[in-house]
Amino acid sequence: MRPVVAAALLLCGTALQASGALGGLTGQAWAGPSPAALPAAPATPAVSVKPHDSTEKSDADNFTNAAALLPADSTTRHTGQFDGHKIAYTAHAGTLTLRDDSGKPTARVFYTAYTQDDAAPDHRPVAYFFNGGPGAATAYLHLGAAGPDILAFPAGNPADGASAKLQPNPDSWLAAADLVFIDAPGTGWSTPTDPAHAAETFYGVKKDASAFAKAIQLWASSNGRLEAPRYLVGESYGGIRAIEVADALAQEQNFLVNGIIMISPALDMTLLDTANDTLAQTFVLPSLEMASLSLQHKLTPENTASHLENAYAYALGPYASTLIAAPPQGEARSDFYDSVTAHTGLPHDVVERERGRIQPEAHDVRSRDGRLYSLYDATLSIADPFPEGVDNGASPDPALDGFTRAYGSAMEHYAATTLNFRTPLSYDLLNLKVNAAWDYRDGQEPLVRPIPTLRRLLALNPTLRVFIANGYYDLVCPYASSRWVAEQMPVGRNRIGLHTYAGGHMLYTRADSRTALSRDVRAFLTP
């Protein structure tokens, strides 16, 4: 993606820049901002608390720097009502120690695991979660979608993060599986032991996948869950990460996964590069059209599917064929701009200025009638702080720079009060330094291409199933890109399920979509 919009596109992955080659690793890991504490935690009372360390850290591990500030692991017990059933469960909040080939600790990886009490460990599925960025912590999925408690935003003003409150989550995926949330290198509370060499050790597609694979193997082994059905759950860049982690688990840990769940996934960075890639420009059109229809109150439960199909057909048909041909002239050009205007709802002068190739991050595309619309949900807007115009990079995003920042302080409050995990370290929700340092290369190749890896995984593992969820209004990782990738699969296409929901990139911030996503995921986890 474009460096100029690195901050705006953090959750899905950004500039296709190359940093230094990374060294070898057997298992490694990651680190922690946050605003003020939120209201009291929801009523899921812990009835016991005790130190817990699933990796049995040696006395010889004398951690220094920030790694020394992470406390002993905590175990608490709870009950909750999920999918209409009362479930007793145990929460483990702590760290996994990753090591290099010599056995020297390289990182303490923060995780939170929720396991149902009295469940058969070999048959109860385990879902391993991570977010994307690169540089985003897993609090988004943890407190936004799947955990036993969620951060709920005001129904009357969903962009009001300051008034968000933690509350029990009846849609928690605990109804179907045990949950393990793992923060990536340099995010959350996952802390490298040698910060000076963290980038060369962790901040790249392949090294990141190896570190996650080792962390998952450590947790599964130390908790007796190697035989349990296992699923990977990734959001945004976490789509690429899920594919690469599944491959690393198989090749490096001899650990095959049963399924991959991707929410608003990036599947190939070039397919999101709307500045340079014609397919990427094509994929964003259906999301703009669906957002326009929603803003005009023209979407209903009865017609949404047909609108999705028609928007996709226009984008991959007449629109794409025009883009790949010589630019239209005269009356044909005017007709093309009229058509794009009708499908996107954008002002005609903006479409003409963009020559029909919409750059969704451009301020004049996002700013209309004094409102600034989000790349992450094209139906969500705030008062534009720069209605007179501003450089694209100076225009904030209502979701990424606004209300979703509340997940950071919510995680700190929740961990301290509900999980009994307290540390002076801030929870690093979005680490732009990690994002800027990311290495997208595959050895000497210029760019990792995960789609061939997914094709290989589907062919080698006949059990593997894939669940892809997208919001209609997401301009960062649009649903059309997921559909197109799935349609190209020569093997296992019948094992890939595509699911779309009202909402944007973080579709789960909408209560109805969160419930629908949970219902569909439960069916996927219990086939």
UniProtKB/TrEMBL annotation:
Q: Which SUPFAM superfamilies match?
A: alpha/beta-Hydrolases
Biased segments, Basic and acidic residues type: 50-59
Q: Where is the composition biased (Low complexity)?
A: 36-46
Q: From which residue to which does the signal peptide run? A: 1-20
Coiled coil ranges (UniProt) are none
**Full protein name:** Peptidase S10
Renumbered to this chain, region (Disordered) spans: 36-59
* UniProt cross-references to PANTHER family, sorted A to Z: RETINOID-INDUCIBLE SERINE CARBOXYPEPTIDASE, SERINE PROTEASE FAMILY S10 SERINE CARBOXYPEPTIDASE
Spell out the InterPro entries in the cross-references.
AB_hydrolase_fold, Peptidase_S10, Ser_caboxypep_ser_AS
Q: Which Gene3D superfamilies match?
A: alpha/beta hydrolase
Keywords attached to this Swiss-Prot or TrEMBL record, sorted alphabetically, are: Carboxypeptidase, Glycoprotein, Hydrolase, Protease, Signal
